[in-house]
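Standup notes, protein team

Yesterday: finished cleaning the Halorubrum trueperi set.
Today: Glycosyltransferase structure.
Blockers: none.

Input for Glycosyltransferase:
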Amino acid sequence: MSGISVLLPVAATSDTAGLYRAHQSIVEQTVSPSEIVLVTNQSLTEDIETAIEDLVSTHSDSRHEHIPDASGLGGVLQAGLKRCSEPFVARMDADDISEPERFADQKTVLTDTKADVVGSHLAEFYDDPEHPERTREVPITHDEIAEWMSWRCPLNHPTTMFDREAVLSAGGYRDFPMMEDWDLWARCLSAGLRFRNLDKTLVRAQVNDLVDRRGGLEYARAEMQMAQELRQLGIASRRDTLQHLCLRVPPRLLPPQVREVIYSLFAR
């Protein structure tokens, strides 16, 4: 057994082709996970329900956990994390593609170093996985990651693998809309966990309407709440908080066309 659980939330709106593709990329890993946990909390479309049933019935290492009382993505991820049984947990979304060596590379880091959480760069594509539109690069060392944490999320969530017990001991996921991952990593840093990003692209993610999803009043409010939390945790200084509010909040309120230009320049 590899000691790896894959935590894969599936939304009612997930694309069945993307789900099959994501699952296949897990099956084709050079180090196979011990289990693939598909987690839902909503009423599913017939297509998605059929796809999940098919994956579970044809792959003995896959199972479906339906948790209707889980609130928001953070609640779904926390409930799913508690149901994972292996010491290491790999995150993926239902339209991601993991490169075949991903789990092997990340498990090596977690077992051979002091890192508790390891991620990588992330390639984003619209229609063709072989031709990504852009790559979201992240800092590599723990110190660099800690420096970024004060005003910018330093890990690509769907690329991460982490020590399950260490993350749960830091409080795990919680309902923090649009900032579930940054909220988790900030609390993990505050609790003393160690981070690492591999300097390679181990996941490709399909994106749709990215600019609209990353803008609007709700996203601006989430940025302000995140800035407040970072300050309360002692991660961000007054200067960091001011930088966060000035550089990250206004773009969320700009027209989509302007955000597209900003996002293309800064890639996060």
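Follow-up from PR in the comments: The longest strand covers residues 195-206.
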